[in-house]
Design goal:
Blueprint lengths: L1 H9 L10 E3 L13 E5 L10 E4 L7 E4 L5 E5 L4 E4 L14 E6 L7 E5 L12 E5 L6 E5 L17 E3 L7 E4 L6 E4 L7 E2 L24 E7 L11 E6 L6 E4 L7 E2 L8 E8 L4 E7 L12 E5 L5 E3 L13 E7 L7 E6 L8 E4 L7 E2 L1 E5 L2 E4 L1 E3 L29 E3 L7 E4 L4 E4 L11 E5 L9 E5 L7 E5 L6 E2 L17 E8 L2 E10 L11 E4 L7 E2 L8 E7 L5 E7 L4 E4 L6 E2 L8 E4 L7 E5 L2 E5 L7 E2 L12 E3 L7 E4 L5 E4 L7 E2 L3 E10 L9 E8 L2 E7 L7 E2 L10 E7 L7 E5 L4 E6 L50 E11 L2 E10 L5 E2 L2 E5 L5 E6 L2 E5 L2 E5 L6 E2 L4 E9 L10 E3 L2 E5 L1
Length: about 900
C-alpha cells in the first residue's frame, strides 16, 4: 500500500521538495567564554492571545497550546503547568515563535508538528517552516517552506491548518496562506510539496489597503474522517476549509486524488472550524463573516451528513436573526458523547463572549449566561481568578459587563477527549478552563479558572530593577505592566491610576528610588480624563497620573532625574518636554528632536541625554535645553542606551550593527568596543565581588556568537550567560541587571514574557519585599480611577516666604481634572503677576462643600475644617515675575464639589482665573 499511495500522490505533487534542516536543543557552538545560568520566567501567567489548544486523541493528558508570538507549549499533568517548547529559536529565525498551526499525532503520540512563522508581510524577513519532533517537543527538526506563514496575522485563530492522517500517520496536510494552496507530506513531515490539483487557494482578504491585512488568508483547516480508512491505510475522506465565502468547504473521498466543493454548502461566510464526528458521520462547521480574531459580526453553525450529503443549520442564534451580532468559532465535540457540542462567539466584545452547549446534536442549545431582565444576568458558571487576579484589568464595569470577563477572541475551545468534565479555551489574555463541565447539563454552575500557569506571552517594552523596594518593575504591551515583589508569584494587579493599554517606558530616580515614572498608550477618545504619564512615590505600589503636553499621541520614552526632582518626557506626536515635580505642568525642551529616546544621568540630577538620527544630545539644566554633542559613529534612529549608576557621564549605547559604544564624557565622544560585533541592548547590575564597576549585560553578538552576555570589567571581556536552549527568539527590547544580586539579569522578550536568570551556584532565591503599608484596593477602580493611596509626600519648605506680592499681583487657576463618585483630582496653578519674584510661597483657600484633601504633590499641606494651606516644596519655592508653579491633589467629596471662591498667596488676595 505504501508504494501504491506514493504512486498516486506523485501525480498530484510538485516535483521538487524542500531541503531539511536540523534544529536540536543542543544546537550551534557557544562562545569561547560561557557560564552556566538557570533561566525562568517572572510569573505573570498568560498575557496574550492563545489561538489554539490541541488535545491528542489517543493519549490522555497530552495537550498542546499554540500562541501567536510566544511559541508552543505542552501541558504537564503532574504540575498543572505548561512547558515551553520553542525557547531554542534564536534571533536568526525569530518569526518561528509565531505558531500558525500545531498537530499532535494520534497514532504515535510522541510525534508533534508545528507550522512556524509570524508574518506573511515584510515585517518578517524569513519564510516559514514545518517543525517536527519525535519526543513531544523536547528536540526538533525543521523543513523550511518556500513561503511565509502568519502566526500573528489576521485569521490566525482559524484552523487547524496542520492535520495528520489518523490511519496512516506518515501523511500530513497543511493549508497555506497567501494563495499557496494545500500542501502534503508522505514522510512524516520531512518533505513537503503542493497538492497541485486542489482547486481553491482561497481569496478572502480583510483589507487590501493595509499591509498587515492585505494577505489572502488561504486554506485554513484540514480534517480527516477516520471512519473512511483503516489502520495503516490512508484515510479516504478529507475535508478542507478555505477562506472563500462562496466555496468554503472542500472534500476528497479518494485520499486526496480528487477534490470538489461540497454541494449545498453554506455561502456568505468563512468556516473558521471544521470538526468531524466519525461515529455519527457528521462534519460540523462554525462560520463567521470575517477571518477574525478581532472582528466578526454574523455567522452560523452547520452540520453536514457525510453519508446523505444533507446540510442542516444548527446555529444557537442564526445569522438571519437580529440578535446575531457575532460570528462563531471555538467549535468542539465531546468525544465521549459525540452529540454534545460547544461553540463560542467570534467575537462578542460587549458585554461578554457567549459559550453555547448542546447535548442533542444542535437541536437545542443553552448559553453560559442569560439575561434575566436587562442588565441583569444569570450565569451557569462561577469564575475563580485567584491564581491570576489581574485578569479584572483593574476594571469595575456596570452590568451587564463583568470583571473579569469570560474572555474575548475565543477561537479555540476544546473538550478533553478522555474527560467530559474538562474543557479549556483560549482568550486574548489567558487560557480558561473547567473540570466540572457536566454540571452545566444538570442545572449547576461550572467553575472557570485560569489554566495558564507556565505559559508566559507578554511583549516586554522596558524593565527596571531599583536598588530598593520591589526587585522588578515591567513595562508591557497590551497589559500595561507589573510590580514584582516576588518573582515566583503572579502580581495581584497590573498598573492602574491610570491603566495603560501598553506601557512604553519607565524609570526611577537613582538616588531616590521610591520615585517612579511611567508613560504609555491609551485611547483618549474613550477615556478623555486619563493621561499617558503616571508617577509613584512608593516604589510603584501606588500611582497617580500627571498632566500631558498638547499633541501627545503615545507614550514614547521618559527619564527621571537622579534625585526625582524633575522628569523629561519624549512622547509620540509632541515635543520633548520637562516637568519640575510630578507632571503637574510641562515645559517644552529645546534643541532636541521630537520622539528622541531620552535617559537621565544617574548622578547629576540636572543632566539628561537623548539620541535621535545619528546625533547624541545632552542637557545640563534639567531638560530645559539640549545641545547636540560632536559624537560620531552613532546609528540612525533611536538606539537604546543607558547611563551607569554612580558614575556621572558614563554612558553605554547599543548601536545595532554599529556595535557597542562607550562614553565617559557625557556623550561628547564614544569609543567602539572591538569585541562586540552588534548590540541590541545594554543594562547594568551589581558589580562582581572585588570589582567597583557595575556588571554589564548585553544582548548582542560577541566574537561572532549572538546571545546574552555579561562583562565584569567594563566591557574588556565578556562571558555568554545564555545557551542554545534559551534564546527566546526576538528578545532584547529590555534588559537590566539586578543592583542587589550579582549575576542576576532580567531579559524582556517579544512574546515569552520577562525572563530572569541566575548564575548556577550563585544566588537563585528570588528576592522579596514586604507588602506596602497601605494595601491595594479590594475592589477595582473605575476606568478613570483615582490614586488609591497618597502619592508624593513632599519635604517641607526650607526657604521661608518673602514679603507677599501686592494685591492683584497673583492669579490662581483651579482645575478639576478627574472625578469619581466620592472623590476627585485637581490641579492648581499659581501665577506671579507682580514685578518681583517670590521666594517661598504659601497658598490658602477655603473649601465650600466639605471637601477633604487626602494626598498632595509638589507641596506640603495642612487642612483645618474647610481651610487649606499649601506651602512650597524645596525644589519649587521660587516663582519668578511672570512665572508659575503648580501642584496637584486628590480629595474626598460629598455629592457637591463646588470650587473655592478666593485664594491668598502669602496672605495677599489673588485673582481667580
Amino acid at each position: 500500500m505504501r508504494n501504491r499511495l506514493a504512486a498516486v500522490l506523485a501525480t498530484t505533487l510538485v516535483a521538487g521538495v524542500m531541503a531539511v534542516v536540523t534544529h536540536t536543543a543542543t544546537g550551534p557552538a557557544t562562545a569561547a567564554a560561557a557560564e552556566p545560568y538557570s533561566w525562568r520566567n517572572a510569573e505573570i501567567a498568560g498575557g496574550g492571545f492563545v489561538p489554539g489548544i490541541i488535545f491528542n486523541q489517543s493519549k490522555k493528558d497530552l495537550v498542546y497550546a499554540r500562541t501567536d508570538i510566544g511559541g508552543a507549549y505542552r501541558w504537564n499533568p503532574a504540575t498543572g503547568r505548561w512547558i515551553p517548547l520553542l525557547d531554542w529559536v534564536g534571533q536568526d529565525n525569530w518569526g518561528w515563535n509565531g505558531v500558525a498551526s500545531l498537530a499532535t499525532d494520534p497514532v504515535d503520540p510522541n510525534r508533534v508538528y508545528v507550522a512556524a512563522g509570524m508574518y506573511t508581510n515584510s515585517w518578517d524577513p524569513n519564510n516559514g517552516a514545518i517543525l517536527r519532533s519525535t519526543d513531544q517537543g523536547a528536540t526538533w527538526q525543521a523543513t523550511p517552506l518556500p513561503f511565509k506563514l502568519g502566526g500573528n496575522m489576521p485569521g490566525r485563530g482559524m484552523g487547524e491548518r496542520l492535520a495528520i492522517d489518523p490511519n496512516r500517520n506518515s501523511v500530513l496536510y497543511f493549508g497555506a496562506p497567501s494563495g499557496k494552496g494545500l500542501w502534503r507530506s508522505t514522510d512524516y513531515g520531512v518533505t513537503w510539496a503542493q497538492v497541485t490539483n486542489f482547486p481553491n487557494p482561497g481569496n478572502y482578504v480583510q483589507d487590501p489597503a493595509n499591509e498587515y491585512t492585505a494577505d489572502n488568508q488561504g486554506v485554513v483547516w484540514v480534517a480527516f474522517d477516520k471512519s473512511t480508512g483503516t489502520a495503516g491505510t490512508a484515510t479516504k475522506g478529507i475535508y478542507v476549509g478555505v477562506a472563500d465565502k462562496n466555496n468554503t468547504v472542500y472534500r476528497s473521498t479518494d485520499g486526496g486524488a480528487t477534490w470538489q466543493a461540497i454541494p449545498g454548502a453554506p455561502t456568505g461566510y468563512l468556516a473558521h472550524k471544521g470538526v468531524l464526528d466519525p461515529v455519527n458521520h457528521y462534519l460540523y462547521i462554525a462560520t463567521s463573516d470575517t477571518g477574525g480574531p478581532y472582528d466578526g459580526g454574523k455567522g452560523d453553525v452547520w452540520k453536514y451528513s457525510t453519508t446523505t450529503g444533507a446540510w442542516t443549520r444548527i446555529s444557537p442564534i442564526p445569522s438571519t436573526s437580529s440578535d446575531d451580532y457575532f460570528g462563531y468559532s471555538g467549535l468542539t465535540i465531546d468525544r465521549q458523547h459525540p452529540n454534545t457540542l460547544m461553540v463560542a462567539t467570534q467575537v462578542s466584545w460587549w458585554p461578554d463572549i457567549i459559550i453555547f452547549r448542546t447535548t442533542d446534536g444542535g437541536a437545542t442549545w443553552t448559553r453560559i449566561w442569560d439575561f434575566t431582565g436587562y442588565p441583569n444576568r444569570s450565569n451557569r458558571y462561577t469564575q475563580d481568578i485567584s491564581s491570576a487576579p489581574w485578569l479584572t484589568f483593574g476594571a469595575n464595569p456596570s452590568p451587564p459587563e463583568t470583571a473579569p470577563k469570560l474572555g474575548w477572541m475565543t477561537e479555540s475551545l476544546e473538550i478533553d477527549p478522555f474527560n467530559s468534565d474538562r474543557m479549556m479555551y483560549g482568550t486574548g489574555a489567558t487560557i480558561y478552563g473547567t473540570t466540572d463541565l457536566t454540571k452545566w447539563d444538570s442545572g449547576g454552575q461550572i467553575t472557570i479558572r485560569p489554566m495558564v500557569a507556565g505559559l508566559e506571552e507578554t511583549a516586554v517594552l522596558d524593565l527596571i530593577s531599583p536598588p530598593t523596594g520591589a526587585p522588578l518593575i515591567s513595562a508591557l504591551g497590551d497589559i500595561g505592566g507589573f510590580r514584582h515583589t516576588d518573582l515566583t508569584k503572579v502580581p495581584a494587579m497590573m498598573f492602574t491610576s491610570p491603566v495603560f493599554t501598553s506601557t512604553t517606558s519607565l524609570d526611577y530616580a537613582e538616588t531616590n528610588p521610591s520615585y517612579l515614572v511611567r508613560v504609555g498608550d491609551l485611547d483618549k477618545s474613550a477615556r478623555p480624563n486619563d493621561n499617558r504619564v503616571a508617577f509613584s512615590t512608593d516604589g510603584g505600589a501606588n500611582w497617580f497620573q500627571g498632566t500631558e503636553p498638547g499633541g501627545v499621541t503615545g507614550g514614547g520614552t521618559v527619564a527621571a532625574a537622579a534625585d526625582g526632582s524633575r522628569f523629561v518626557w519624549a512622547p509620540k506626536g509632541a515635543a520633548v518636554s520637562y516637568s519640575v515635580g510630578f507632571g503637574t505642568s510641562w515645559a517644552t525642551s529645546t534643541g532636541i528632536p521630537n520622539e528622541a529616546r531620552v535617559e537621565s544621568d544617574r548622578v547629576n540630577p540636572k543632566k539628561f541625554y537623548g539620541v535621535s538620527g545619528g546625533r547624541f544630545y545632552r542637557s545640563t539644566d534639567g531638560g530645559a535645553t539640549f545641545t547636540a554633542t560632536a559624537a560620531t559613529g552613532l546609528p540612525t534612529g533611536t538606539p537604546r542606551f543607558g547611563a551607569v549608576p554612580g558614575r556621572e557621564g558614563d554612558i553605554w549605547l547599543a548601536g545595532g550593527a554599529n556595535g557597542l559604544l562607550h562614553s565617559t564624557d557625557s556623550g561628547a565622544t564614544f569609543t567602539k568596543v572591538s569585541s562586540v560585533g552588534s548590540a541590541i541592548n545594554i543594562g547594568f547590575g551589581k558589580a562582581a565581588p572585588g570589582q567597583s564597576y557595575q556588571a554589564l549585560y548585553l544582548v548582542g553578538t560577541v566574537d561572532g556568537v549572538t546571545g546574552v552576555f555579561r562583562s565584569d570589567n567594563a566591557g574588556t571581556g565578556w562571558v555568554r550567560i545564555n545557551d542554545s536552549q534559551h534564546q527566546y527568539g526576538n528578545a532584547g527590547e529590555a534588559i537590566t541587571g539586578d543592583p542587589r544580586v550579582y549575576g542576576r539579569v532580567y531579559l524582556g522578550t517579544n512574546g515569552r514574557g520577562v525572563l530572569y536568570a541566575d548564575r548556577l551556584g550563585g544566588s537563585t532565591t528570588p528576592p522579596t519585599t514586604p507588602p506596602p503599608t497601605t494595601p491595594p484596593p479590594t475592589t477595582a477602580p473605575p476606568t478613570t480611577a483615582p490614586p488609591t493611596t497618597a502619592p508624593p509626600t513632599t519635604r517641607p519648605p526650607t526657604t521661608p516666604p518673602t514679603t507677599p506680592p501686592a494685591t492683584g499681583g497673583c492669579s490662581v487657576r483651579y482645575s478639576v481634572v478627574n472625578e469619581w463618585s466620592n472623590g476627585f483630582q485637581a490641579d492648581v496653578r499659581i501665577t506671579n503677576k507682580g514685578a518681583q519674584g517670590v521666594n517661598g510661597w504659601s497658598l490658602g483657600w477655603a473649601f465650600p462643600s466639605g471637601q477633604q484633601i487626602t494626598q498632595l504633590w509638589n507641596g506640603a499641606y495642612t487642612q483645618t475644617g474647610a481651610n487649606v494651606t499649601v506651602r512650597n516644596a524645596d525644589y519649587n519655592a521660587a516663582i519668578p515675575a511672570g512665572g508659575s508653579v503648580s501642584f496637584g491633589f486628590n480629595a474626598s467629596k460629598t455629592a457637591a464639589n463646588a470650587r473655592p471662591s478666593g485664594y491668598t498667596l502669602n496672605g495677599a488676595s489673588c485673582a481667580v482665573e
